[in-house]
Amino acid sequence: MSWLAILLLLVPLVGGCGGKILTQWPQKKIFTEYFRQQQVKLGMSREEVEAIMGPPQIREEADYRGGNFLLYFYRTHNMDYPESNTVRGGYTPFIFQNNRLVGKGSRAYFQAVDRSAWSGEVAPPAQAPHRSMGPQRSW
């Protein structure tokens, strides 16, 4: 009877994977685009960036307080990591203004779309109100 119980436990464990192991290894296209983005420099034209990176997966154009921006998004990571400089689940944003690359990465994106909470500016700490607890004794 104990052999039957062991067999019933081992069969789902051994056969359950179906030969596939789920990992977070980057896809070849994502890996390639990650290295291509290193060649892109600020000031390049939109055509120069497309010659290096190819057409973007996501393209947006919008007016914000800073002016009219063209936003390209390339998938360079599997997901957003704190240091990955990506938004929207692994996409690196490229920000164009007047057909020139003016920024890339999450910080430039948040500044372009005017999300001041993400601008990196730190508000000064609030002053705690002074409370008197009566006479202070020093022993």
From TrEMBL:
Alphabetic keyword roster: Signal
Superkingdom per UniProt: Bacteria
Annotated protein name in UniProt: DUF3192 domain-containing protein
